[in-house]
Amino acid sequence: MYDVVVIGAGPAGYEIATLLGEGGKSVCLIEKDEEHLGGTCLNWGCVPAKNFLESANYLKRASYFKECGVDFEFNGFDLQKLQNNTCRLICDTKSGIFKKLQKAKVEIKYGLASFIDEKRVLVGDEEISGEEFIIATGSTHREHPLMKTDGDKIISSKEVFSLKTMPKSILIVGGGAIGCEFATFFNYFGAKTHIAEFTPKLLPIEDDDIGKTIKREFERTGVRVDVKANIVDYKIKDDKVEVKIDLGKKEEIFEFDKVLISIGRVPNTKGLNLEKANINVNKDFIEVDTNLQSLSNKKVYAIGDVIQSPALAHVAYYEAKRVAHKLLNLEALPLTAIFPSVTFCSPQVASIGQSENSLKEQDIKYKIKKVFFKSSAKAKIKGDDSGFIKIIYDESTQAILGVSIVGNEATELIHQFLMAINAKLTLDDLSKMIFAHPTLSESVLEALS
User: Fold this and answer.
1) Residues annotated catalytic, as ranges
2) What is the pLDDT of residue 67?
3) Which site among 45, 95, 375, 376 is 20 to 30 Å from 385 CA-CA?
4) Quick check: pTM over 0.90?
5) Given strand 224-227, what is the order of strands in its sheet?
6) Percentage of the chain with pLDDT > 90?
7) In whole angstroms, what is the distance from residue 302 CA to residue 289 CA?
8) Where are any strands of DSSP class E within 92-200?
9) How far is it, in rounded angstroms, from Cα 106 to Cα 26?
């Protein structure tokens, strides 16, 4: 019998397995097969997507650097080479995860796990017993109620990384983070790109000015964006997908080579036979308390996308650390922690703390300081001066309540505010600091002046 059995080897699973193994626990980590080690994030999600986007962003700035005197010609795009490079990146990262698990003396078993009772799971023909269990089986893409993915004409984000050729046209259903990131990729590599978002704005979890800015920048670069758009019918016709979209005042029919469904994710809890271990779920999410323990079985913990917390790898890492600290009798980590949300579209988007929308809902008074990158020499040097930094603060205390950034390196810049908010630095504190020139970071100082 193991001290702990971890089901799922994505970011949450391999992180907690490593921490517990390093802490002296006997740990068994269960994953479907070796290919899935690292989870969706490593194999078909954030890591390969960002590698694809890095190439797209290079191409985006090519025309600017030609104006700067760099003499080169773009002779096309080899999708297979990008895929090969991405495979090497995944393999290198996966090798690092293997080494961490081996060093921590974690035993890995492959196969689908299902509970037999509260102390045993079945993996293939083998019964595995544990004193405690951690469920970290992640999530999968949410199917559209009308357009079911077929892996060919109608795809999820997973199939993007195995496309044989770049489509000439693509409809992206869903304008959240994943949809906007792939819109950037397909647009800059020449596909006629169209986004249909059901809600009134792109990036629905962000403030209104963020969604408007991204919409404007997308449209400026040739992406068609329709918000309040609903897919009402579709047909596969020869080598095309014919889609009817309700645009509010009218319905229009469009043809595309591919349709990418990107409308969220659902937890991977079906098939685990959770009822045999007395584990309750709500809409397939495992119900947990503040310690991330199952409400109905205190020997079971759940972390990552299988619970109703933000479906972000960095949040999953933190949840893994919280549970590991509890099981190893270490200092308890805070129940809640401030964390950034990041979207790697172009321009990039990042936010932290409270949004304007949430403050309005709570009837909390606030003030805003905003600076546009148009005034940043470094943004111009980098070939893209779109976007802004928006700081939301309490006027009386000068405390930072939240920050949103759109623009160059937003996903890196946001961490300055992560540290500032955690250190309880006020706007006055930041205004007394010296930022290097010319940098994107000095725009923070300019926003405070």
Assistant:
1) 437
2) 87
3) 45
4) yes
5) 154-155, 258-261, 169-173, 192-197, 224-227
6) 94
7) 10
8) 107-110, 113-117, 120-123, 126-135, 139-141, 154-155, 169-173, 192-197
9) 7
